[in-house]
Amino acid sequence: MSETIIDIQNISKVYEMGSQKVHAIRDISLNINKNEYVALMGPSGSGKSTLMNILGCLDTPTTGIYNFTGTNVRSLNDNQLAEIRNREIGFVFQTFNLLPRATALKNIELPLVYSGIRKAERTERAENALKSVGLDDRMGHKPNELSGGQRQRVAIARALVTSPSIILADEPTGNLDTKTGNDIMKLFENLWKNGNTIIIVTHEEEIALHAKRIIRLRDGVVESDEINENQVKLS
Amino acid sequence: MLYELKESIKLSMEALNSNKLRAFLASLGVVIGISIVIMMGWLLGGLDKAMQDTFSIIGTDMLFVDKWDWTGNSNWRDTRNRKDITLNQAELLKDLHGTAEYVIPSINQWGTTIKYDGETYQGMTTVGTTAENAMTPVGNLLMGRYFNEFEEKYGSNVIVLGHMVYSTVFRGENPIGETVKLNGRPFRVIGVVKKRGTMFFDFIDRQMFIPLKKYAAIWSVNKRSMSIGIKAGLDNDLDEVRTETIGLMRIIRNLGPNEPNDFSINETKAFEKSIESIRLTVYTVGIVMTSLSFIVGIIGIMNIMFVTVTERTKEIGIRKSLGAKKRSIWTQFLVESAFLCLIGAVFSLIICSGIAYLAATYLPEYFPELSFLLPTLPTELFVIAAIVSIVVGLLAGIIPAIRASNLDPVEALRYD
């Protein structure tokens, strides 16, 4: 049996809007194992963003248990959560979220800065990460000198550089044209084949079909959670 | 940690560089505050130096028995009603004094006119004194010699000029052997005193010294009070000399046991007091102005840091998602705030150095009393300005930095 990375049991998230309580997600339980390729689907308002924030340790559930590689996340303070994000989770965002004033290489080095890794090692690892996404000729470029697809590759390299337990991608192709989007999905597929665990959050059926397992959310609960028999493979 | 600091400084430089005008306006209050601190230190530095100079021209081992009090602390009416100190009393003191090295009576005639080469000069002071006056700091001559006991005894027509008299009347020409006229009487110039004047004692260079006996023949010594200079000598205890002087003067002046002294003992210590009051004024004005401008400055910097935090909300979110801890975030903003103020301090130092140099170079020409100004800033002011600016920056940055570090990563990432 493969190693469990994410184990959530009966988690709910309640937001208080004035006097009203809004249940963004309720009573969700699921497991994600090492080297899974999961798509988290649902229309807007389904709670998929909330679930992603909780899975990514950016937010904590109101009730329920979240064990991340054996650690109970709910009992952690802000700094401990930051440490988990730093070491165990690689984020890829729809809007890339690169620092505009920093070069590609510096952007990729940033997570390593926060883990306190020395300059020489940082640069070496960042260069390797850039190579692995095929952008080693763009090291000194700033985000505004790169195309959308290139920016997303830099973001993926940044997510990879700490060798995290999971890569969490939120609508990674949402701001890209179809062809570039396909290139990015190909990259995720390769990462998965190389043993990475990937969770992609999307509302697009086409994108979700690249995953091996699709979890559908609706109105804050899991509607379905099944193996994707028609997985689209690009390579 | 060290790396983070370095990175934060680099980051702040980029951030400030991208918005120069805003950074300038924000730090204006701090620039003004630090400038006031620097100018205050510069003025006090000049005052201290002037005080030291004054001490050395008066002589730290000198006491002066006078009718008037230098400090002006005693009641002016009482002082005015004191009896004059007469030549007889001065000579008695000289005969009786056991501990002093020299007792030197002198008397001043203010507003003497001096004539030379057909021109008349006013506003000088003639001092009638003894040859022993050469043993006091007045004896430091630029050229020539002082009059001797022989010339004093016979009341010779010889004169030693103060530096300003020399430079005004002779304008750099050699005065030795020339004849000048005081109140129509000819005097042969035999010496010139070195320049000694400072802001507290600028009249001192307008003095001209002639033998006491000669003075008595022209103006009489009974019309005004004598001043008795007492040189303790470096080997003697000044306190002992002062005690004996007071005791003798009380006897000479026939004072009863319960009567207060009807004379003043003046010494350089008196200047420490008057300097102290100037210093206190400068401090008070300076501190009030500094506090005000620092309050304005801190508000300015705090405001700009709040704006910066808001502008960089997204960036903070990104950094947090990548694992930045609270400490990293607030370090970054505190460093930026401190750095902004430090840049302000550098500006202040440059501006104030310029002002100090120009003021000390050109102002004394028009306002001689400002000659105490130093042309360069005292070194310790650079350290003080740096420390003060960093402290102000840290103070102003604390609240914005804490706000930044407490931002919710989810909210921050959503910010556009």
Q: What shape does the CA trace of chain A take? A: globular
Mean pLDDT of chain B: 86
Tally of extended strands of chain B? 10
Q: Tell me, what's the shape of chain B?
A: elongated
List unreliable stretches of 5+ residues of chain A: none
The chain pair with the largest interface is: A-B, 25 and 22 residues
Structural class of chain A: alpha/beta
Query: How do the helices and strands follow one another from N- to C-terminus of chain B?
Result: HHEHHEEEHEHEEEHEHEHHHHH
Oligomer: heterodimer
What would you report as the Rg of chain A, rounded to the nearest angstrom? 18 Å
| Beta content of chain B | 15-25%
Rounded to the nearest angstrom, the distance between the terminal CA atoms of chain B is 30 Å
Radius of gyration of chain B: 32 Å
Low-confidence stretches of chain B: none
Structure description:
- The complex is a heterodimer of chains A (about 240) and B (about 425).
- With about 240 residues, chain A is of the alpha/beta class.
- Chain A has helices at about 50-55, 80-90, 105-115, 120-130, 150-160, 180-195, 205-210; strands at about 5-15, 20-35, 35-40, 65-70, 70, 90, 165-170, 195-200, 215-220, 220-225.
- Chain A has a 6-stranded mixed β-sheet, sandwiched between helices. A 4-stranded antiparallel β-sheet of chain A has the order 2-1-4-5, with helices on one face.
- In chain A, α3 (about 105-115) crosses α4, α3 runs parallel beside α5 and α5 (about 150-160) packs parallel to α6.
- The two termini of chain A are about 25 Å apart.
- Chain B is about 55% helix and about 15% strand.
- A 6-stranded mixed barrel of chain B has the order 2-3-8-5-7-6.
- The longest helix of chain B has about 45 residues, at about 270-310.
- The mean pLDDT of chain B is about 85.
